[in-house]
Amino acid sequence: MKKYLHILFVVAALAVVFSCDSTKEQGGNSEQLKILVSQQSSMEAAEGDQLTMSYYGSGPLLTDKVVFKDTKAGTEYVFSIKSSADGKFSFTMDKPMPTGTYTIYIRRGPDEALVGPVNFTLIVRVEILPKEGYNVYGRISCGDEGVAGVVVSDGIEVTRTDANGVYYLNSSKKYNLVWYSVPGGYEPVTLGYDGSAGGILPVIYRQLDGVVANTQRADFEMVKAQDTDNYTLFIMGDMHLANRSGTGDLAQFRTFATEFNQRVSTTTGRRYGLTLGDMSWDIYWYENKFNLADYYKEMDTDVKDLIIYHTMGNHDNDFSRPDDFDKEQPYRDILAPTYYSYNIGKIHYVVLDDIDYSGVPASTKDASGKIQTDHRGEYTTNVTQDQLDWLKKDLSYVSKSTPIILSAHAPVYRPNGVNAWKAGLSGRTYGATADLASVLSGYTVHYFTGHTHKIFNYDNLSSGKFFEHNAGSVCGSWWWSGHYVSGINLAQDGAPGGYTVLSVKGTNLSWVYKSTSYPETYQFRAYDMNEVKKVVTSGKYSRTNWEKYATAMQKYGSNVILLNIWNYDPSWKISVIENGKELTVTQISEYDPLHIISESAYRDSFNTDSWVHHFKATATSATSTVTIRVTDRFGNVYSETMNRPKTFETGTYHASKY
Predict the structure, then answer these.
(1) Which residues pair with 639 in a beta bridge?
(2) Which CATH class, in words, describes the domain spanning 3-122?
(3) What is the CATH code for 136-223?
(4) Is the CATH number 3.30.70.330 carried by domain 232-515?
(5) Coil vs helix vs strand at 393
(6) For residue range 469-481, what is the model confidence (pLDDT) as tens digits?
(7) What is the gyration radius of the CA atoms in the chain, in angstroms?
(8) Which of 329, 330, 328 is nearest to 379 (CA)?
(9) Is-contact 52 7, C-beta < 8 A?
(10) What is the 3-state secondary structure (H, E, C) of 183-217?
(11) Residue 190 pLDDT greater than 90, yes or no
(12) pTM of the full predicted structure?
């Protein structure tokens, strides 16, 4: 029975478009074979599989051959092209080709055209017969053993493997994917950007051919992992890597990665990574030729010893394509499904895509890649009906006693003043915050989001079993403050660029926000507002918002202490003591003074925002020493003895001072 395997099954390998020009290795005519081939840097197939590759423009002829050359061994494997039409050509691997590194060519008569290098893996499959009524099937195994009870989905249908690790799906192939939910006690095989084993990206999905009539087999390999009940998850929001000369974002990111790797290496037990979207920056896919594949290469090069699960953000969509599905396609090709689930230890994880571009047309660009008509901001923050329906099916295999950690880009809730909250998902015609909450009802859920570049914590565990961590950003204010003032990388709420460190012990969770380059004890910043008022004065800068900031700072009376406690939630305790007397502390929404002088003083975008994790207390003297103690929900105490007056300048708050 014929078996089909699309080359794009090898998901998470770096997709590269090669221009095939005729070489003269074998003499003959000098005809140029102009074929643009979308080639993965890694392939896997078994003898008898039909492989499909994509091309752009004019494709190969049926009389051409696909040649795999092992130049070191001096051997080659030649396969006949069976079909070539509509941007795809296929050939059958009708002879076994050993696992190894090859260079692919298209051969036409005496001439050859280079396609590119590939790491090839020969699969020896356990024979499985397809079933009537099912068009996607496969086996999930660990070593030679099939693994039972593994959840598998195509984004619409959800099933589980049988006792032999075999699954069957009747798929509409709407998303052209099939993926499995990694069970607790296992880890996925991983892939580097160059197709090598052991990179950052989990191989949890395969791409399908989109043809419902075709029956396709997709197998997955897992690795048994010890003690996955206790581990550390490193959660990274908004990186916005774009290779911008204006901010030096890649250099700043590499500084982050050096410190990040050190933090990871000091962690005992197993460790994993999770992104919260906006790893890239859509406009610079074209202006700077730096896209998701370049992000993958940068991340895989800079970050070590982590399996990283990815969440999609609005800037990870291809603005040059229309509608939601097409805009998402490069992300699916390179990084991950836009929504999926997995398990680590006793925790069930769900990744959702709550950026909905349904009905949004393509933005247009000029020859240099600059946007001419811009529709990038016309999305809604929404969980589509497909995702809600899929989530119900996925959770049908998850006990209500199992904690859920969800990740998505845009927040589910948002602050509405200091002590109130509002729905964060705007919805379109379905899938707003209330609908998502309904699907999750009965589960204890921790929801990690990004998008805002700020930090807030919505603790509704006591009544709604729901805690949202809007978890900040790696890049701060898109790397701008760190560009203007070296070592001061801040988001618009004044929170330092950084990441969340989530410690998991069975089903117990604890977390801390780790500011890049600062010690983990750096959990707040304290200002002597007498000194801030001397610096943030009217007329000092000509920036658009400067006068607004100056007015806000000058409104303070004498001897006010202002605190920015970025990862605050209502279970934290704050104590400000002057001369042995406890001062009254009041929560307020305010602009962060350090962000004002390190970013807003220099530019008119990504400026300082008023945010709700600020607190004020009023001392009786301008020169008294004030002791500040902040205790988080886990009993950790962070303190500062403020000798006043405390100078207000960027150097006062540099990482080297802590």
Answers:
(1) 629
(2) mainly beta
(3) 2.60.40.1120
(4) no
(5) helix
(6) 999 999 999 999 9
(7) 27
(8) 328
(9) yes
(10) CCCEEECEECCCCCECCCEECCEEECCCCCCCCEE
(11) yes
(12) 0.85
